Amino acid sequence: MKQNLAINGGPKTIEKDFEWPVFDDTDVNAVAEIVRSGKWGNPDCGDVVETFEKEFASFCGAKYALTCVNGSVALRLALIACGVKPGDEVIVTPYTFIATASIVLEANCVPVFVDIDPDTYNINPALIEKFITARTKAIIPVHFAGQACSMDSIMGIAKKYNLRVIEDACHGHGAEYKGKKLGSIGDAGCFSFQSSKNLTSGEGGMIITNDESLYDMMNSLRNVGRVKGGQWYEHHFAGCNYRITQMQAILLSNQLKRLAEQTDRRHENGTYLNSLLEKIDGIKPLTRGLGETKHSYHIYIFKYDKSKFNNLSKVDFSRMLAAEGVPCFMGYPEPLYKQPLFQQKNFMCYAIPEEVDYSDVFCPETEKACHEEAVWIFQNTMLGTKEDMDKFAEAILKIQKAYV
Questions:
Q1: 2: confidence class by pLDDT, cuts 50, 70, 90
Q2: What is the full DSSP assignment across 353-398?
Q3: Boundary of a domain, candidates 255, 281, 309
Q4: Where are the alpha helices (DSSP H) in 278-338?
Q5: Parent domain of 154
Q6: Based on the structure, what is the number of domains in the chain?
Q7: 206: which strand partners?
Q8: What is the pLDDT of residues 328-341, one digit of tens each?
Q9: pLDDT at position 194
Q10: What is the pLDDT at residue 43?
Q11: What CATH number did the domain enclosing 280 receive?
Q12: Claim to verify: residue 237 and residue 288 sit in the same structural domain
């Protein structure tokens, strides 16, 4: 049976390339029109950029939106605008991209890692209060893979302790929690338009908020400290130039027209794939039905139990599945706190207290996800057909039959 596996030279289960990004001549022509206009820069954050910001705010049900160069900067601008001071603590998850935690360091604050819920891989709200101290000022919940965090619980904790909530919705374009778009629930919500994201212009970021004063501060910080009504060479805050270009904005505006339909398709395919994989012994989709009313499936994640595959390692299983034509990956190899940045305390010039030490941090569920369980299928595959989802399940069963 093993000789039938694609990794050993057998036929692939799926002979298909999953397109990403999705575009057509309307995107090309929109960008070309900006190029021909000669208005490439955006010194005052107006025109096409402002139009896209209003469109995105409306799409998310938020009052305000402002673009910036990427999702990492979006998170940092939001955190700084919330008024944190050097040495303040910010609660984050260890199962996410490095930027969620490194931007806390860039704001001269201390990341405090809280373990994930094993059913969702999102931050576990039942653990948050144990890590709150007098220095805690904010929580950054990550809607990982497009699965909504338990926002009612998180917002309740934030209200109890007077904390700011900055939603990392960089995976959550178009996704919803109890009918509300992700990013619109906390004090601010941050998005990435990097090349792999569900809404993309290659790079770019966005922050949404319903707080006018917070919006004004973030707007100043992304525009070299300028303020409304001020002079061009009048700078009030230590901001920088984090503006995007007209070409990015027009491309994003055009791509936004597809996002609702694409999100619905990802949600439907993900739900269907869950129904297939939950029938396979040793494969467990992450739990749904905890408040999310729409899942954007930036990543489709399932938990892998090697004991049901004759102890085939997760690494080898992931390689075999990829060879069968399923675009997949084994996920993060380590929790964030085990990155050299934190273990070696390479905090550079940031004002992190000397006593801060991550050498003893241990989040068991995150460790398990990284080392044993989590397998990711990439978002562009979720724009496929039901037949494609059938093939994904077929590929997993093919591997299992070869080893059991």
A1: confident
A2: -TT---TT---HHHHHIIIIIEEEEEGGGGGS-HHHHHHHHHHHHH
A3: 255
A4: 314-323
A5: 25-255
A6: 2
A7: 67, 191
A8: 999 999 999 999 99
A9: 98
A10: 67
A11: 3.90.1150.10
A12: no
